[in-house]
Design brief:
Layout: H1 7-11, H2 17-28, E1 37-43, E2 46-52, E3 61-66, E4 69-74, E5 96-101, E6 106-114, E7 117-124, E8 133-134, E9 143-146, E10 149-151, H3 154-163
Antiparallel strand pairs: 1-2, 2-7, 3-4, 4-5, 6-7, 8-9, 9-10
Length: 164
């Protein structure tokens, strides 16, 4: 696999360290595809990661969410063939660790396991301070823009309550 040197770009950019670290780490990762997984986009701000973890139970899997990193690890003690009764063991129960880089403001909402599939629900919640605002020219209070349109600020709501 070809590797890239991002040093010239690091010299001329400010604030992109995390992006370059992500690209360099993605380049170094090994090609281990166990366990297989899907990533679904359910809506603009909702995602689902589904991992195929047949043979593992909820107690065998650890899900850890840190800032911008989701780690799913599975460890299971091998007890299936102690008496030597298996002729072939094809169901993988080897230990694994899968890491997912998360964007800013993405958090884990829920995790569920059904039929050998581990589903992890993710939601992106952008703080009000980071959302675009509509600035009025006549000096009125700014309003926050969201998917439904313009939402009143807290000061406008309190003014309406005082006049009522």
């Amino acid at each position: 696999m070809r590797s890239f040197d991002f040093t010239p770009y690091r010299r001329s950019t400010i604030g992109f360290d995390r992006l370059f670290e992500f690209l360099e780490n993605a380049n170094r990762e090994q090609a281990d595809n166990y366990p297989p997984y899907d990533i679904e986009k359910l809506s603009d701000d909702r995602y689902r990661i589904t991992l195929a973890v047949a043979g593992f139970g909820p107690d065998d899997i650890d899900i850890t969410a840190r800032q911008n990193l989701l780690t799913v690890a599975g460890r299971k003690a091998e007890t299936r063939n102690r008496d030597g009764s298996f002729v072939h063991m094809g169901i993988a129960t080897r230990a694994f660790e899968r890491r997912f880089e998360l964007a800013d403001f993405v958090r884990v909402e829920d995790a569920d396991m059904k039929d050998g599939l581990l589903s992890i629900e993710l939601v992106r919640e952008i703080p009000d301070a980071m959302k675009p605002r509509k600035i009025s020219i006549n000096g009125a209070a700014p309003r926050t823009l969201d998917n439904e349109g313009i939402r009143e600020t807290e000061s406008e709501r309190s003014d309406e309550r005082e006049t009522a």
